[in-house]
Structure formats: C-alpha cells, structure tokens
Amino acid sequence: MNREGKYKVVLIEPSEIVASGISAIIGKNPEFTIVQTLADPSYYNSNDNADVIIVNPAVIDFNERFDMRSYFGGSEAAIVALTHSNYEESVLRQYDECIGIYDNASRIIQKIRNAIEECIQNPRSDINELSARERDILKAVAKGMTNKEIADEFNISIYTVISHRRNISQKLGINSIPGLTVYAIMNKLVDMSDFG
Questions:
Q1: Cα 103 to Cα 91: distance, rounded to the nearest angstrom
Q2: Closest C-alpha to 5, from 54, 47, 51, 74
Q3: Going from the N-terminus, what domains does the chain have, and what CATH number goes with each?
Q4: What is the separation of C-alpha 35 from the centre of its chain, rounded to a whole number of angstroms?
Q5: What is the pLDDT of residues 34-51, one digit of tens each?
Q6: Which of 59, 83, 125, 179 could make an SS bond with 174 (beta carbons 3.0 to 4.6 A apart)?
C-alpha cells in the first residue's frame, strides 16, 4: 500500500467512456486510488507496484494463452477482469475476480475487495507449482532444444520429456513453444543472453 494507506489501482480499458465511469466509481471510495489508466496493456509499468490491476480481457492476446501474472511481469497484484461480454471459463479462471459492465458501484467495490482478499489468502505463483525437473525442462524448451536433445541432456527418455512438457503446459495453461519461451523469460528462468 502507498503512503496514504490506499490500494493502488491500475485500470486497463480501451473505452474512454468505460474507463471514466470505472475511475469515477473507484475514485469515490477512500480505500482506492487510480495510479494509471491505460488503453493498452503493453504500456503497463510493473514498477508502479499496483495492488490491483483491472483489465478488459479483450485487450489481452490469448492466442498464446499467457498466464496473467506473467503477462504483468509476475505481479502479485489482484488481477480483475472488466468484462463487456461473455468469455470462456478458461479465460476468466486466470483472474482473481470478474467485474461486469452492468455491476453497480457497491458490487464493483465489493468485487475489488474480494480480489484483494483472495490474493492475500491464496497468493499465486505458477512457477512454484513446477517441480525442479519441470523448470529444467522449461528452460531447455525455451532455449529451443528438441525433445531428443532434452532427453540426452538429462539422461531421460523422450517419453519422459513429453510427459514433463504436457504437465508444464497444463500447469501454466500455455500450449505453444513461443508462449513457454516468453513465460520463461518473464519469470527469469532464462536470460536473453541464453539466445545466441
């Protein structure tokens, strides 16, 4: 929390009308302060140490199935979806809470409080869900190694490598090599210098 004891909120919403409305609702509550309002998540600055990130899921590219925490630089903030329409459950599961565009002001504030409480009680860290071997396999995948090369490197069978990769994809919700690579870079499992 910042000096005034308020939760710092970052709002990522491309609609200026919606962003203004949500900002006004949040701004009336003494518990919260809006520190950034962005139309595009690529402008998010993780150095702001936000307590809450409210984001319209429509601005996130889910083709790679990024993990929300990784997408926002491993942020420990409560991440809340601001929905204008229906989304698949697999998308909404990545958020701590979901605000609907038709929720009233008291419901919006309550959902933000719920998300903060959820993060405090159940902190998420997907990288800690991976075993040490799975982290090693993820590093190797991110570096572009084939299943055979990984098997040879760790003296395990190709079938074991495939099994580890399947488990990694299930735990992280990321099904592509580029997505896994980005995840590994953002979670500091590999460094850009590892790529020759």
A1: 20
A2: 51
A3: 7-121 (3.40.50.2300), 127-194 (1.10.10.10)
A4: 19
A5: 999 999 988 888 777 889
A6: 179
